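Dear colleagues,

As part of the handover before I leave the project, I'm documenting each prediction I ran so the next person doesn't have to rerun anything. This entry is a single chain, and its sequence is reproduced below.
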Amino acid sequence: MVFNRTRPNRRWRASPPVYRRKYHSYRSRSRRPRLVSLVGLFLVAVALVATLAFRFLYTPAGAGADRLVLIPQGSGTPRIAQILADEHLIRSAFGFRLLARLDKADAMLRAGEYNLSPAMRPLAILRKLVKGEVVTYPVTIPEGFTVARIGMLLEEKGYFTRQAFDEAVRRAYDDASSTTAGGGAGTASTAGSTAAYGFPMPPKNPAYKSPLEGYLFPETYLYYKGMKPDEMVKAMLTNLDHALDAKDKERAAQQKMSIHDLLTLASIVEKEAQVPSERPIIAAVYLNRLRIGMALDADPTIKYALDEPGKIVTLQDLEVVSPYNTYKNAGLPPGPIGNPGKPSIEAVLWPANVNYLYFVAKGDGTHAFASTLDEHNRNVARYGPR
């Protein structure tokens, strides 16, 4: 009885494996066409995405002339992409945002004014914004310009207001100043120094019209829209640092002259000399006077004190009460009366080997030099008082 019960069970258990094998075989055959279809659709989708990506990355928005586009300060990628789309420089703002994200440049786009064209590829536009290849405008600061005159020039060109530039100058001085003692004729205060530049900041003195007078190196600078006045001031200080090389500093030390005194005398030479060849001679005259304790009697210092650079100095003007009046005060004035160029600085460092103590303008841009007062008086009688 036990044997009869188990035999049907074995027979019943033997049949299902055959049924399952047939079922699995049928299911595999039915899935193959579906799998092939899915793979095909996937490949088509990949090809479509690749085509669209290639079209966006390497296909310009269209033809057209170059145009100036301003990217405001603080603009994020969404706003930049929309600006470019509004200017018809790209096909899709969303696509450009995606491109910036994929290129990991989302937070690297710089503000400024750019010269862009619809014929440029989106990737090329992105690269330009990342590198900050903005449009620049050259502005030349003439040698001898005062800080006030530089501010006026920049305001005339529409770059900065004079007030904003003056404030940037004072910030630069305050940021760089320290309590390191320094020397400058006619000063009784401390001088600032900074690790950012290879020269000490001018000593503090309430007589200054600008704390960085003489330290803003005259040169051609590149302005770009969105530029801050602090950047311009920093560029000017950096250029002075480059202009004063190790040889110049060594020579100044040999003459026992501080950088402040060097720039002060060079600024006077800059104002007096109209012919380049006379710079070392005029520098020698002033150095000879300083050596024997003789007043400089420099007319440009009177003009600076009166704030009238184009004025013809009169005898009455010589009585002006000012620490910059070198007719009344011995030695150098408190600081530079303008921003001298490299030739005037070199003229003070390497003056002519002459014993002149006087000179008078001839009226043609040159001067008549003399070693004695009698000779000078004869020159004055011949060419006029000044």
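The CA atoms of residues 28 and 189 lie 96 Å apart. Confidence is low (pLDDT under 50) at residues 179-195.

All the best with the project,
I.
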